[in-house]
Design goal:
The protein is of the alpha/beta class and 565 residues long. The protein has 5 domains: 120 residues, Rossmann fold (3-Layer(aba) Sandwich), CATH 3.40.50.11220; 64 residues, no CATH class; 96 residues, 2-Layer Sandwich (Nucleotidyltransferase, domain 5), CATH 3.30.420; 113 residues, 3-Layer(aba) Sandwich (Cobalt-precorrin-4 Transmethylase, domain 1), CATH 3.40.1010.10; 128 residues, Tetrapyrrole methylase, C-terminal domain (Methyltransferase, Cobalt-precorrin-4 Transmethylase, Domain 2). The chain contains 17 helices and 28 strands. The strands form 6 sheets. Strands 3-2-1-4-5-6 form a 6-stranded mixed beta sheet, with helices on both faces. The protein has a 5-stranded mixed beta sheet with strand order 13-12-11-15-14, with helices on both faces. The chain has a 5-stranded parallel beta sheet with strand order 18-17-19-16-20, with helices on both faces. β4, α3 and β5 form a beta-alpha-beta unit. The longest helix is centred in the middle third of the chain and has 13 residues. Bound molecules: S-adenosyl-L-homocysteine (SAH). Keywords: Cobalamin biosynthesis, Methyltransferase, S-adenosyl-L-methionine, Transferase. InterPro entries: 4pyrrol_Mease, 4pyrrol_Methylase_sf, 4pyrrole_Mease_sub1, 4pyrrole_Mease_sub2, CbiG_N, Cbl_synth_CobJ/CibH_dom, GbiG_N_sf, Precorrin_MeTrfase. It is an enzyme of class 2 (transferase). One of its GO terms (biological process) is methylation. GO terms for molecular function: precorrin-3B C17-methyltransferase activity.
């Protein structure tokens, strides 16, 4: 299956939001784009409908526009002669009563139209002749099959539409339901198989992805060797479903590069003495042959790759940003869409949603960080795709360090083979600073005021030195019910070095519903203005404040520093 960008659902007014959200339930990775000033609650806002649509189209993003088909057509008209990209484009009536596939026939637009129509409880307006006549798009075979030659396929379908009959060679179970003009004596054939040969002019050649190649990471130029071995064995490359390697080689970059270059999945089997044994155990029914140091296994039917051996497990430690979906980096959105298991403190897991029914959520108490980290590795070592969720950035007083500590402590090779990645997010100090202006524009110091994991004496010492060094101070975890007096003591220390007029920014629930931003002076600051959902930024001697036209103040710390201070 080709990996597509997640769809964009584009809406013009608040009236379409409910329909957009129903479509988003069907495609949880989809982003709702709302016209700025007209829609609240969209994942992202835009100013120009036409530009937004054209931008998405050129990025090959499937577009679901909740508006008149004509508006969509006019907006994209200038791009339609460019055949390089043609993502699915659909118009959906605002109230969800009609779903019209417009473009992207070969990108599966009709499939999407049916999926959306099903989610909305209506019928899709399919207009493709071949598909209407035969009940299936012959040029877009299902997963597990690949069309050999598109141009030739188009001619073939027009011949059938013009009245030619057809017979099927090979196994094409998805065509059993199709209304094809079948005739055992027909000249035209739909041929399903995996042999390497050009399509005949009267044939629709479809390759079944039924071939696996067992490989070893030590083979040089692996991707080329696989291609050559398939050609020697007279097998079409399009029939290659996956590569198989030993679990011991799970982390070998050469294997992952080869699979990526070939555009197929990489699966793993328990170590065996040789490739023959490994492939034989994994696919007992397949026809096996050695080909220049590789082992080719040809199965009877397309391989369900997810059932072949197992995948390399993945563990991504992600940062959601402060809360608003717009401030979540796209790599994190994509990771959430591919996750099978999601671990984290309940509030953050909820913030990361909505999730599909097949995604397993493991909510845990905020305090059990190491236990959660180990649980994540246990799941990932089984081959699952696991996400550990933090707010802000996962490396800032959050899960990334705990996950690495758990790995460092472990001697389990399966944990060390996991595909571990840390994906950054916008940390609360940066999100708060951006809203206030640029208080972190010069050197600054980031501290957690929590003495849960470190002695209070070290906090006092660092505060004293940082305040003395005239650094802007960013305080995470400034106060909590269990730590009521610490902030007051911290401010006493800071006040020993800093003027009472020093600006202080208090950002509470930044990027979340009900966010507040306050600017006070150090003299005015009282611990009860602050709670555990607040970010405290204490200015340095150069931090400035001036009023903004829209109300409130701008706060910034200039880039320069006076030579004589
Ligand atoms: N990894 C997070 C920080 C976790 S520590 C990050 O990078 O942002 C938790 C502390 O972060 C809270 O006590 C609070 O001080 C701050 N914080 C987290 N999210 C916040 C938000 N949306 N607004 C203000 N402060 C926030």
């Amino acid at each position: 299956m080709n990996t597509r960008n997640a769809p964009a659902i584009v809406i013009l007014g608040a009236g379409s939001l409910a329909t957009a959200q129903r479509i988003q339930q069907r495609y949880p990775a989809a982003t709702i784009h709302g016209l700025s000033g007209r829609v609240e609650g969209a994942d992202s806002v835009y100013d120009s409908f036409g530009q937004t649509l054209r931008g998405l189209y050129q990025e090959d993003t499937p577009i679901i526009a909740l508006c008149a088909a004509g508006i969509v057509i006019r907006s994209l008209a200038s791009l339609l002669s460019d055949k390089d990209v043609e993502p699915p484009v659909l118009a959906v009536a605002e109230d969800g009563s009609a779903v019209v596939p417009l473009l992207g026939g070969l990108g599966g637009v009709n499939v999407m139209a049916r999926e959306i129509a099903e989610a909305l409880g209506v019928a899709a307006a399919i207009t493709t002749s071949g598909e209407l006549r035969f009940g299936t798009c012959l040029l877009n075979p299902p997963q597990g099959y690949a069309l050999a030659d598109l141009e030739q396929g188009k001619r073939f379908v027009s011949d059938l539409l013009a009245g030619q009959s057809v017979r099927i060679e090979g196994d094409a179970p998805w065509l059993a339901e199709a209304q094809l003009p079948a005739d055992a004596g027909a000249q035209r054939t739909i041929h399903v198989g995996c042999e390497l040969r050009p399509a005949r002019h009267d044939e629709l050649l479809i390759h079944a992805r039924s071939v696996l190649v067992a490989v070893d990471a030590s083979v040089p130029d692996l991707a080329q060797r696989v291609t050559a071995a398939l050609a020697e064995a007279n097998i079409a490359q399009a029939s290659l479903a996956c590569l198989l390697a030993s679990e011991q080689q799970m982390a070998e970059p050469a294997l992952h590069q080869a699979a990526a270059a070939l555009g197929v999945a990489l699966r793993f089997a328990p170590h065996a003495d040789n490739l023959l044994g490994m492939a034989g155990q994994t696919l007992p029914q397949a026809r096996l042959s050695e080909q220049s140091g590789l082992l080719i296994a040809v199965a009877e039917a397309p391989l369900d790759v997810a059932q072949v051996g197992r995948a390399r497990g993945r563990l991504a430690v992600i940062g959601l940003g402060p809360g608003a979906a717009e401030l979540m980096v796209p790599a994190v959105k994509a990771e959430l869409a591919r996750a099978e298991d999601v671990l984290g403190y309940e509030t953050y897991v909820r913030m990361a949603g909505p999730f599909r029914d097949d995604q397993v959520l493991h909510n845990t108490d905020n305090r059990e960080e190491m236990q959660r980290a180990r649980h994540a590795f246990e799941l990932a070592a089984q081959g699952r795709s696991v996400v550990v969720v933090s707010s802000g950035d996962p490396g800032v007083f959050a899960m990334a360090a705990a996950v690495l500590e758990a790995l460092h402590e472990s001697s389990d090779p399966a944990w060390h083979r996991v595909d571990l990645e840390i994906l950054p997010g916008v940390s609360a100090s940066l999100a708060t600073a951006a809203q206030a202006g640029a208080p972190l524009g010069h050197d600054f110091c980031v501290m957690s005021l929590s003495d849960n994991l470190k002695p209070w004496s070290i906090i006092e010492q660092r505060l004293d030195l940082a305040a003395q060094a005239d650094l802007v101070l960013a305080f995470y975890n400034p106060i909590s019910k269990a730590r009521p007096w610490q902030l007051g003591r911290a401010l006493e220390i800071v006040r020993q070095h800093r003027d009472g007029h020093t600006p202080v920014v208090l950002g509470r629930d930044i990027g979340r519903p009900g966010q507040t931003l306050k600017v006070v002076t150090l003299a005015e600051l009282l611990p009860d203005m602050v709670d555990m959902r607040t970010m405290v930024l204490v200015g340095s001697s150069t931090t400035c404040v001036f009023p903004r036209d829209s109300g409130g103040n701008w706060v910034y710390t200039p880039r320069w520093y006076p030579a004589d201070r």
